Amino acid sequence: MRRLVLLSQLGARTDSPVRFLRWHAEVEAHVATLPLEVTVLRPNLFTQAVLGALHDGVLGAPIGDARVSVVDVRDIAAVAAVVLTEEGHAGATYTLTGPAAVTHAEMAAAAGARFVDLGEDAFRDALGGVLPPWQLDGLVEDYAHYRRGEAEAVDPAVRTLLGQAP
């Protein structure tokens, strides 16, 4: 038996205005045609990615006070291990979120930092020398998706699959 656990993204769909969500949906469609037992994991924004963006005690992003149900990468890894090693997950798609939707200001405060709501141009300027243009454009689209409130839903999949709170 050949199994594949595909890491996708919450909200993946072919008609999305967010390129990364379109690309993930295209990959999902492709692997569905392969002779494999495929399980798709669609995590939300990684907690560690947000906290990794802290710089000099500041977290800046173009998101305002939108809430995002960020998920810990350790929960994603634990779910991947479960669906890879246990029966009954072939063909399933699981949305992976944390236990609550939080703002970037709340995450910054929890890390002893402060949040600055950056405009798109300031966000681009801050990351311009760090990311290639295509990736930066996609990240700006991702943050517009978050800002619209499209990533605040909390899903029970992590709790259900792991038998514990995310």
UniProtKB/TrEMBL annotation:
<protein>
    <submittedName>
        <fullName>Uncharacterized protein</fullName>
    </submittedName>
</protein>
<dbReference type="InterPro" id="IPR036291">
    <property type="entry name" value="NAD(P)-bd_dom_sf"/>
</dbReference>
<dbReference type="InterPro" id="IPR051604">
    <property type="entry name" value="Ergot_Alk_Oxidoreductase"/>
</dbReference>
